[in-house]
Structures are given as structure tokens and as C-alpha cells.
Specification:
Layout (H helix, E strand, L loop, with lengths): L5 H9 L4 E4 H12 L4 E5 L3 H7 L2 E5 L4 E4 L4 H8 L6 E4 L2
Parallel strand pairs: 1-5
Antiparallel strand pairs: 2-3, 3-4
Helix pairs in contact: 2-4
Amino acid sequence: MKYYSLSKLIQKIEHPKPEPVSEAAMVKRINRRLRKYGRTLRKSRGLQSKHELGRYYIHDFEGNCIARKHVDLRSLCHEENVRKEYEFVVSE
């Protein structure tokens, strides 16, 4: 049996190991949160739509319109509080 000092145990509890999370997983988490408001996060396809809407945009189902353009995935994770402190987003 291995014994740890109290300070090492506290350090392990307070500072969990950083974990990578894919962009796709973050999009799914965000969409679960936005679904409550009748919205969803979408990824642009094609050069024209990427230029006009940005890489990600928010679509409003109720009004059938674009609610927000040029959405930054990392900042939206922070706004919607879907990313834990020890997680970081990895580009695909």
C-alpha cells in the first residue's frame, strides 16, 4: 500500500490533469445548452458562407434566421459555461 502526504493529496484534488476535448464534443455540448432557447450552433460550409457567416454561426429555429455571425467557439464555451476548468479545446 502506497501512502501519500496530505499536501500531495490536496494538490491532486485541486489541480486535475488537463484533458483535451475535441471541437465536435464542444459543439455538441453547446448545442445541448442552446436548444433550450430554440437555437443551434452550425459550422459554415463553402468559402462564400465562411466569408459571410464565419466558421461558426448560431441559427435561430423560431425566427428561422441567423442570430449571431462569426462565433468564436472557445469564447462561446466560456459564455455558456460548458467547458470545465481543466479542459482545453483541440482543433480537428
